[in-house]
Design brief:
By secondary structure, this protein is of the alpha+beta class. It has 2 domains: about 120 residues, Alpha-Beta Plaits; about 40 residues, no CATH class. Helices cover about 35% and strands about 15% of the residues. The chain is built from 5 helices and 6 strands, in the order ββαββαββααα. It has a 6-stranded mixed beta sheet, covered by helices on one side. A hairpin with a 6-residue loop joins β5 and β6. α2 packs across α3. The termini are far apart.
Length: about 180
């Protein structure tokens, strides 16, 4: 483990064995905006100083990063979480691939050993730029569609199990007119 702080600038291999070769996507809520507009990427890092170094590296190196931060406290295993927030758009796979290429240099973990997990997926997916296109919604509209479909699946499971379904429809012009038409409001 590195015992010194690397704030002067990171070099190849400086985070070797410090960053777990996993990327989590949309597991956490955005602090910079609405989740449909902002993607939250997280990495697990062994130690507060290396986590801070990774945050500084990311914030200074990528104009498309809205914010990067480290968890306030350590997890039960002593690791910290690094949060990276960016706008949800069609450039995410290309931008993340650039970030991952640089993280590979810092960690010396080859890209083919990295894996990613999208919120609520049942398993990890091997990392690739192409896989990013398929596992995550790249636009606010795609995000809302994915979340709506997942909520519908959850509601159907609850109904099949005899559990009360208490999902509230969003307040918008369409649902408002449906409520009025149904005599609910």
């Amino acid at each position: 483990m590195h015992s010194s702080n690397l704030t002067e600038g990171l070099e190849q291999g400086d985070l070797k064995r410090m960053v777990h070769p996993e990327m989590h996507i949309d597991e956490f809520k955005s602090k910079m905006g609405d989740d449909k507009d902002i993607v939250v990427i997280t990495f697990k890092v062994g130690g507060k100083d290396p986590a801070m170094d990774l945050v500084n590296f990311i914030e200074k190196g990528y104009s498309w990063v809205i914010d990067a931060d480290v968890s306030a406290g350590e997890m039960t295993d002593g690791d910290y979480i690094v949060f990276v927030e960016m706008e949800r758009d069609e450039d995410i796979p290309k931008n993340l691939h650039k970030l991952m290429s640089d993280i590979v240099n810092l960690t010396e973990v080859p890209l083919d050993e990295w894996r990613m997990w999208y919120y609520r997926d049942l398993q990890f997916t091997p990392y690739s730029e192409e896989a990013l296109h398929t596992i995550m919604p790249l636009t606010p509209e795609a995000y809302e569609e994915k979340m709506h479909a997942e909520q519908e699946d959850t509601d159907n499971l609850k109904a099949a199990a005899g559990v009360p379904v208490n999902t509230k429809a969003p307040d918008n012009e369409m649902t408002e007119s449906l409520r009025i038409w149904a005599g609910i409001k």
